[in-house]
Amino acid sequence: MKKYIALIVSMFALNTSIQAQQFTTVDLFDMTTNISYGHEGYYHKDVNNYLNQFVGNWRFTLNMNGHQYKVYEVKFAKKTFTRTYPGTGGTFKYDALVGEMRIVKQGTEIYNGFNNLNQNYTSDTQYNIYNFNRVENGNCNNCTIPYQRLQMSYSEPDNDNRKFNDLNFVMHTYVQNGKTYLRIDFPQSTIKFETENRYDADLPVTKTELFFNFGTYNFERFY
């Protein structure tokens, strides 16, 4: 009986310790030079809710010869993660935008990662789409404020082609004629043209094209 009581007390103490841990909040997009991302004891928070504009469902329809050829749907969620440094026990928190995609080609669903967005992972990198940082506007269409665009990392499952490593695109929202759009620029020039197997150079690659093709897309919000 004493062993059970001791175990309960120990578990309660551990839970209390975790809940009592304090984090110093800093702006996710405006960090000082002496507070680097992932610094122990800090919460890198989206204090101005910049990421909120992307949260939800978006759809782009590609028509060919007057018929619906391909439909892209992307869904984003803002989540907060707590990570612990291996071996040190030091932790930090951060907000992140994560997403997944669904693609229908000529009426047939060829890819659906939405279920993965429902998983409660310990890191944003365990989702197939996650944010990097805000970037300069460059030749951005409809950008009205500095650093309006968000850079996203994008990956696809079962990818054994080194050519498709480190994919990323930039995106921003804008309003036109009363409708909200999500513009995604996915430039082909950002990748290295290699066709080696990313896991074993002696094996041929099986993935030779992406579900999400390179290009510029104007997604409409839908619910």
Provide a descriptive summary of the structure in words.
- The chain has two helices and eleven strands; from the N terminus they run H-E-E-E-E-E-E-H-E-E-E-E-E.
- It has 223 residues and is mainly β.
- It has a domain of 150 residues.
- The protein has an eight-stranded antiparallel barrel.
What are the SSEs and their pairings?
Elements: H1 2-20, E1 24-27, E2 42-45, E3 56-64, E4 67-84, E5 91-105, E6 108-112, H2 114-117, E7 129-135, E8 149-154, E9 167-176, E10 179-186, E11 215-222
Parallel strand pairs: 1-2, 2-5
Antiparallel strand pairs: 3-4, 3-11, 4-5, 5-6, 5-7, 7-8, 8-9, 9-10, 10-11
Describe the structure concisely.
The protein has helices at 2-20, 114-117; strands at 24-27, 42-45, 56-64, 67-84, 91-105, 108-112, 129-135, 149-154, 167-176, 179-186, 215-222. It has 223 residues and is mainly beta.
Ends: how far apart?
54 Å
Helicity range of the residues? 10-25%
Rounded average pLDDT: 85
| Strand order, largest beta sheet | 3-4-5-7-8-9-10-11
Shape: globular
Looking at this protein, list some descriptive labels.
mainly beta; 223 residues; 10% helix; 8-stranded antiparallel barrel; 11 strands; 2 helices
